[in-house]
Amino acid sequence: xxxxxxVPQGLPMLKLPIYLDNHATTPVDPRVIDAMLPYLKExxxxxxxxxxxxxxxxxAAVDVARKQIADLIGASDKEIVFTSGATESINLxxxxxxxxxxxxxxxxxxxxxxxxxxxxxxxxxxxxxxERIDELKVQRLSELAERDVTVDELAKLEITFNLxxxxxxxxxxxxxxxxxxxxxxxxxxxxxxxxxxxxxAITDQTVLVSxxxxxxxxxxxxxxxxxxKICRERGVLFHVDAVQGVGKVPxxxxxxxxxxxxxxxxxxxxxxxxxxxxxxxxxxVRIAPLIDGGGHERxxxxxxxxxxxxxxxxxxxxxxxxxxxxxSARLTQLRQRLYDGLKAKLDMITVNGSLEHRLPGxxxxxxxxxxxxxxxxxxxxxxxxxxxxxxSASLEPxxxxxxxxxxxxxxxxSIRFGIGRFNTEExxxxxxxxxxxxxxxxREMSPLYEMAKEGIDLKSIQWTPH
Amino acid sequence: xxxxxxxxxxxxxxxxxxxxxxxxxxxxxGLVGAPACGDVMRLQLKISDDGVIQDAKFKTFGCGSAxxxxxxxxxxxxxxxxxxxxxxxxxxxxxxxxxxPVKIHCSVLAEDAIKAxxxxxxxxxxxxxxxxxxVAPAEAAK
Lengths: 466, 142
What we know:
The complex is a heterodimer.
Chain A lengths: L17 E2 L10 H11 L12 H20 L7 E4 L2 H15 L6 E5 L4 H30 L8 H7 L6 H8 L6 E5 L9 H7 L4 E7 L11 H11 L2 E5 L18 E5 L10 E5 L27 H39 L3 E3 L10 E6 L4 H7 L3 E2 L1 E2 L12 H5 L4 H5 L1 E5 L6 H20 L2 H7 L13
Parallel strand pairs in A: 1-11, 3-4, 3-5, 5-6, 6-7
Antiparallel strand pairs in A: 2-8, 7-8, 9-10, 10-13, 12-13
Chain B lengths: L4 H8 L14 E8 L4 E9 L5 E9 L2 H14 L4 H5 L3 H8 L6 H27 L6 H4 L2
Antiparallel strand pairs in B: 1-2, 2-3
């Protein structure tokens, strides 16, 4: 016997806590879970087992997923390499290119607002190069001084022996194949790349340009198609960190002329622990592997494939492709609703980053004279994130906001809302109302708000930084 | 980050939020911190002619721990003499609120705010006795 219970109409269906941090991660779509389950149960085979039905089933499922992922970005399934996640994909793309093309050049160009996976990888390559240079200096200066020299003496002895003019040392430097040199391009106030700066930064030593499709903090969408065109014309490889953008806004590897694309499953309602790297076949792009052992994924990434996660990732891509037009319209409308709700009742709020070139679900707002962490504490039933230093281990506010020219105090006052597939209008209205009340409460407590209201220019005051 | 119950209690029900007349000769104002660092505290003390703190008000721009530290010190200093208030240390504040290491600077700021407010009051009194004009508290905050 089946009972149907009437749900009273007009009651808000609001459940706390509310998740509005969909740039950090997303919940797994129930349809994705359904697709994955058989591969956690009866179809548990190893996709590399070639001689029995368990292996064949697993391999067939991986093939379907590979196709679903490739379809989302207009690629061929032969161009998809599975990884443990986008951080690995990014490491593989950048280090793999630098290693494989070391005889061609050693220069990378990226943006100051990239994700730490890109920036920290670049920093390591720079450090590796510098350490090798220091070793060569020690070696050459020891020869010239006819004694063992230490790293501490380098600066002094370099001048004594005029190392800059030393032909042997310069020859060694020219032949150096370790690490890379990196140019970090600054962005415009709206968070977008300056294409003229990019053109000017490319040299005959440049092997790779790495730019994100959409920013994880301010959601701005970079003009990857224009960037790809410039890279192709100048014969430079182009890597796109598409983690935040793919599945949310249209993206095609051919339109972007992308050579490498990093993707993540858990940002598009798939499971965590799986990602992919697109590696172009025509014209063929080569990368050196980071992980050896078994030669899986055409030698680019060894290790047994995580079949259930890959199946889920594939399903998530299929859903994203099908639902992108409706979902993106709905999320844009929810974003606008949130922004309108805040704007109508609060003064002195600023949107960080371009509103025009932006992910549908992203809103990053600074609420002047209120500190971000205090605000998050006030809305503890709502999960968001902040550019405030207090929310991070370091005491610096968001480097992305700082790179966009946002003042430090306004970076401390920022909140990132990440609206996703499962958020509702009721939730957005609840959050807007809660934000207004919380900001007003904290402003009543803020000496800065009082001073600003009295017409005191806060920049004219000599503060006591601590 | 998990907050202690006392931080949450002060954050949700802060004591003595408000403003005293900064031009009142018996009011000392301390403004410490910097917007760029993410915290600014303004502590105001109303001090009787015999040097006892009669009232304390604060306004703070900062995280929950900074707000809680300010609220706590306004409660603590009331009824104390200037000398007693001057001896309050950040360690006592941090201990009372069970602040984690990354939040110790909030308690330091609260201690600095007390000292700055007392100094402002003393400077005002000195000016009054000497018959000169005191500088505005905001500027006195340096």
